[in-house]
Amino acid sequence: MAITNHQLINTPDYRRHLITLLFIQIAGLILTAGFITVLLYQINVRIDERIFRIAAVIENDYPGSLEKVIPVLLEDAPGLSVQPGKEYLARFGYLSGSLKNPNPVYSGMLPSVVTGFGILALIITALNYSGFLFNQKRLYSRIAELSDCIISILDGKPAFGKTKHKEGIVDLFVCRFNQMVKLVQSSTEKLSGEKLFLRNIISDISHQLKTPLASLIMYNDLMIEEPHMEEARRAEFLTVCRNQLERLEWLIKSLLQLGKLGAGAISFEKTPLNILEPINRAVENLQPLAGEINLSISDNRNEIHMIPGDTNWLREAFINILKNAIQHVNPQRGVIRITLSDTPLFLKISVKDNGSGIPEAELPRIFERFYKGSNSTGMQNVGIGLSLAKMITEAHNGDIRASGSDGNGAEFIITLPY
Q: Which helix (H) or strand (E) segment is 305 a member of?
């Protein structure tokens, strides 16, 4: 972006530079005026000395004539012609206005005058150079500081330029530079986090797929090695293989969802919705799995609790939370209660069960990916559901917390902003 002359003049850095130069020029003018004043004083002293000598000679050799001469020496006498005096002095070798024979008063002072003006010129030049050097040193010191910051950044050590809290171009440049460093640092940290997440998710996928794949290979090898296997046993093996394939399908789907959420590759279509819609759909989907478990909503199903959100992803979150509760309650005596309550700032959803509960020591890790608590049972529980629910909730600017104690049931509280 080009800068205009008006912008340059209004720039504090440039004004400071101009003020410095102005002070230097004023100092030079004061020195010049002082030098000229001293020079004129010396010329006046030497002329006075000449006049005193002339007056002494006239008074000694021509007594009484000094009264006629004094007015001419001390005052202007326009009525008298200067030509006779020029002709008379010319006979003694004094030629007025001649460079070869200048006035003795001035010729005697010429070396001092030339030397004085030379010294004065050197002083003014030194002042100008000092001012220029001062401003350039200040500018290049800032540039050198930024250069050191760039070297530190290239070495992987973020560094920021120091601002002087002034409104100059240099300070503006330093602020923009610091903004760039923060952006680069944020991008680097994000990239490092994505690389770490990718490495972890690949490791997790490999680990989680290993068990069902091993089971499939084993049962398949058994059926190949025994071509005349009993039909009942073969049917049993095929049922196990189907179950493992379904588990693989669910596992891969969940891992892909987890990976997309963690990488920020999913765009949520947030629209105004009644939160009961995804909750009711989640309950309906899980009724076959719940069986005799008392799964209910402690709220009027016609009630309206409007929030901005993505219906499908919120349903996925509630499915995972409810499925976790179903896995930890007694199939015959289990009770899972969903309660909704409004607050001035957010909607609060509670999912409470009377199951095995969560040991207090495990609460901090309950939402970690692939974490399985000590009360976790069944091969289907691999520790993905709650992690997915947390990521979906946070993507809606909400929060999810777990509470409970060992043997006294668990409660998950989800808060979503209006």
A: none
* Residues contacting residue 209 through CB under 8 Å, at least 6 positions apart: 248, 251, 252
Which amino acid belongs to residue 91? R
The two structure tokens encoding residue 296: 């209910």
pLDDT in tens, 134-188: 777 777 777 777 777 778 777 777 676 666 655 566 677 777 777 887 887 777 7
First-to-last C-alpha distance (Å) of the chain: 44
Taking the C-alpha atoms of residue 317 and residue 330, their distance in angstroms, rounded to an integer, is: 22
What is the reported pLDDT for 415? 93
Ranges under pLDDT 70 in the chain: 1-15, 73-79, 92-110, 158, 160-170, 194, 197-198, 200-208, 211, 254, 258, 262-265, 299-302, 373-382
Name residues whose C-beta falls within 8 Å of residue 148's C-beta, 6 or more positions apart in sequence. 159
Burial of 241 (0-12, 13-18, 19+ CB in 10 A): middle
Kindly report the backbone phi and psi dihedral angles of residue 379, in degrees, each rounded to the nearest multiple of 5, phi listed first: -70, -25
Strands 346-353 and 306-309: what pairing? unpaired
* Residue 339 burial (10 A CB sphere; 0-12, 13-18, 19+): middle
> CA 289, 293, 298: angle at the middle one, nearest 5?
110
Instruction: Compute the distance between CA of residue 300 and CA of residue 200 in angstroms, rounded to an integer.
Output: 43
Specify the pLDDT at position 381: 57
Q: Is-contact 280 301, C-beta < 8 A?
A: yes
Output the CA–CA distances (angstroms, integers) from residue 119 to 22, 27, 37, in the order listed. Answer: 21, 14, 16
Which residues are CB-neighbours of 311 under 8 A, at least 6 positions away?
271, 273, 277, 278, 281
Report the greatest alpha carbon distance in the chain.
Answer: 166
Query: So what's the pLDDT on residue 211?
Result: 65
The per-residue pLDDT for 414 is 93
